[in-house]
Specification:
Layout: E1 3-12, E2 15-25, E3 29-34, H1 41-49, E4 56-61, E5 64-65, H2 70-74, E6 77-80, H3 92-102, H4 107-120, H5 136-148, E7 154-158, H6 166-179, E8 184-189, H7 192-198, E9 201-206, E10 209-215, H8 216-222, E11 227-232, H9 238-242, E12 247-254, E13 257-262, H10 268-279, E14 283-289, H11 293-301
Parallel strand pairs: 3-8, 3-9, 6-7, 7-8
Antiparallel strand pairs: 1-2, 1-4, 4-5, 9-10, 11-13, 11-14, 12-13
Length: 306
């Protein structure tokens, strides 16, 4: 087992931030840790990585009990916090050399390790550039490089795609997938679509407890679509849409795109298509929407699933 937690719990003052978190990951790939802001994701990740001591419970990294042998366990972990721990007045080479030495790597291997991660993370042509002169996307790459330079079994990434532009997002997802071929990646996000794109399995935390733990396919099968997204060249008024049988709400996303909330009636899709043809709305696209993340949390929190 590459990562195992047993009844992991942590309390700030009198309030429990997380309670009885049990995680088991046995193979390479990307596992998503999903939760709304304040759900307990960062607390869980900080405890796993050793930057925070748990109030109760144990963490095992590649079979090593982190409480009993923290140094050996931490050698197996690479951590990318939400805000990468960069020294911006250093060059990429200087910083990566420094982080390799922090991991107590054999001095004879440091130079080759730095070159290897620069190549893997697309940083080789910026070796002598000061980190403060890099874009946000490349700073994130430097953060990932320091997390994998010592070839850990487990790489933990806290919101690694947060704040990136669309082009940077595509490149970052590609890099994370490549890393997952050699390492186990635990990736946190509060964005469901990001987890859906990247992850094989998903662990969902809400109010400090696990409310879902299974494959991404099982999650998608469990969550029922309750809204439909329409793209129309000649959209009707909100009042017209609300008069359609089964519609419970209408939200215009922009002038030509609308989200239709409905009661789960399986014929709603056909009903909207027919209405568009009948009234000349010029339907261009139609598709189910899994719904807002908060709604899914409410649905899952009503019954804990493992």
């Amino acid at each position: 087992m590459i990562l195992q937690t047993e009844n992991l719990s942590h309390r700030y003052s009198s309030n429990w931030a997380i309670r009885d978190i049990n995680i088991g990951i046995a193979e390479h790939g990307i596992v998503g840790l999903l939760g709304s802001n304040g759900a307990g994701k960062s607390t869980t990740m900080n405890i796993i990585c050793g930057t925070l001591n748990a109030t109760e419970g144990n963490v095992y990294i590649n079979g090593i009990n982190k409480r009993k042998d923290p140094e050996a366990a931490k050698r197996q972990i690479g951590f990318l916090p939400q805000h990468p721990p960069l020294y911006t007045d250093l060059t990429i080479d200087e910083y990566l050399t420094y982080t390799a030495e922090l991991r107590l790597m054999d001095k004879r291997t440091v130079k080759s390790a730095v070159e290897e991660v620069k190549e893997k993370c697309g940083l080789a042509h910026f070796s002598s550039r000061l980190i403060k002169n890099l874009s946000g996307g490349y700073r994130q790459r430097v953060g990932i490089a320091q997390a994998i330079i010592h070839k850990p079994k487990l790489v933990v990434m806290d919101e690694p795609t947060n704040g990136l532009d669309p082009n940077q997002l595509i490149e970052m997802r590609k890099l994370i997938r490549e890393i997952a071929q050699e390492h186990t990646v635990l990736l946190s996000s509060h964005i469901l679509s990001e987890i859906n794109l990247l992850c094989r399995d998903i662990i969902m935390i809400e109010t400090g407890r696990i409310v879902f733990s299974d494959s991404m396919d099982a999650f998608n099968n469990y969550t029922q679509a309750r809204s439909i997204i329409l793209k129309l060249d000649n959209p009707p008024s909100q009042q017209e849409l609300q008069q359609i049988k089964g519609v419970t709400g209408v939200e215009f996303l922009n002038a030509n795109q609308v989200r239709i909330l409905f009661d789960g009636d399986q014929e709603m899709n056909d009903r909207l298509v027919n209405a568009s043809v009948q009234h000349g709305w010029k339907l261009r696209e139609i598709g189910y929407d899994k719904g807002l993340l908060d709604d899914i949390f409410k649905q899952l929190s009503s019954q804990t699933i493992h």
